[in-house]
Write a structure and sequence with these properties.
Elements (H helix, E strand, L loop, with lengths): L1 E2 L4 E2 L12 H12 L8 E5 L14 H11 L3 E7 L5 E7 L13 E4 L6 E4 L9 E8 L3 H4 L12 H12 L9 E6 L5 E7 L2 E8 L6 E6 L8 H12 L3 E9 L6 H6 L7 E10 L3 E10 L3
Antiparallel strand pairs: 1-2, 3-5, 4-5, 6-7, 8-12, 8-13, 9-10, 10-11, 11-12, 13-15, 14-15
Length: about 290
């Protein structure tokens, strides 16, 4: 969880029931912060490998949408990408018409690939907002060995996480960032990083039958272009498939052509989809890549 004055970002993985946290978050915002209305809400995730293993309402996109519709007004739900391949689900709301002051406005934003959540209290904070996700599957088994405990007695936890950071090169994604990483027993890895007031987060499931790695950040592109980030991650995980999403506020001095071109060709991969969505106040670019000659 990343907490700002104007938003909360909550990202989860596995079978965590993220949406069940929303009523409590809204109650805390109302009772303790006097924020009684939501400015905008966003929830997103990649299509699950094993939806039957998820708890209600997360085992069905229609049920997730129905749950969100009970909490928010002015919502819209989308399936982005091929329904007979890897795709991405997005639910977002439009700003309400009855918010008349900054003190009344708040934003609760949800993202996942796995899942994520973000709560924003000032509508002008939407003016320069960008989130990049890279969601990778079918990871190289040789590379995944680094995400297992080498010694079950002393290689887990933060010590094991630091070892993974060094050996994989993950610490070099943003060298000046504060990085808090954790290696689970017998395998699995999570990390949260802070660079000034921006974040990045990584989750890795290395098992051969369901290997998956997710990366998300809102760090400004001055610290690295989208293409540079993609190539660094591909070199570390060597996925058979990956999805990239770039979600950015409109009117931030970046034209749509430049945004679409940010998902350029990746050496060794075939781009199966590149889709631009024009939402109310936001642009979304979705890219789907598969390894060439897989």
């Amino acid at each position: 969880m990343f907490v700002y004055q104007h938003k909360i970002i909550l990202k989860t993985c596995g079978t965590t029931t993220l949406l069940a946290a929303i009523p409590r978050l809204l109650k805390i915002a109302s009772e303790h912060c006097q924020f009684h209305k939501v400015w905008r809400a966003f929830y997103s995730r990649k299509s699950f490998m094993f939806p039957e293993r998820q708890s209600h309402p997360h085992n069905n996109w229609k049920d997730e949408v129905a749950y969100l519709e009970q909490l928010f007004d002015n919502g819209s739900a989308y399936t982005v990408g091929r329904i007979n391949g890897d795709h991405w689900f997005l639910y977002l709301t439009s700003p309400p018409n009855d918010i008349t002051s900054e003190d009344d406005s708040s934003q609760l934003r949800h993202r996942a690939a796995s899942s994520s959540t973000d709560v924003n209290m000032e509508n002008q904070c939407d003016l320069d907002d960008q989130t990049v996700e890279v969601l990778m599957t079918e990871l190289n088994p040789k590379m995944m060995k680094k995400f297992y405990c080498e010694n079950m007695d002393n290689d887990s936890g933060t010590e094991g996480g630091a070892r993974v950071d060094r050996e994989t090169g993950l610490k070099n994604l943003y060298p000046s960032a504060k990085l808090d990483s954790f290696l689970f027993k017998p395998c699995g890895y999570s990390a949260n990083g802070l660079l000034e007031d921006s974040y990045f987060t990584i989750h890795v499931t290395p098992e051969l039958s369901c290997s998956y790695a997710s990366f998300e950040t809102n760090i400004p592109l001055a610290h690295g272009t989208i293409s540079e980030i993609i190539h660094q991650l591909i070199a570390i995980f060597e996925p058979g498939k990956f999805i990239v999403t770039v979600f950015k506020t409109q009117g931030c001095n970046v034209d749509k052509k430049h945004l679409v071109n940010s998902l350029s060709n990746v050496t060794g991969y075939v781009r199966k989809d590149r889709i631009l969505y024009d939402f109310d106040g936001y642009d979304l670019v979705f890219g789907n890549f598969e390894k060439r000659n897989k």
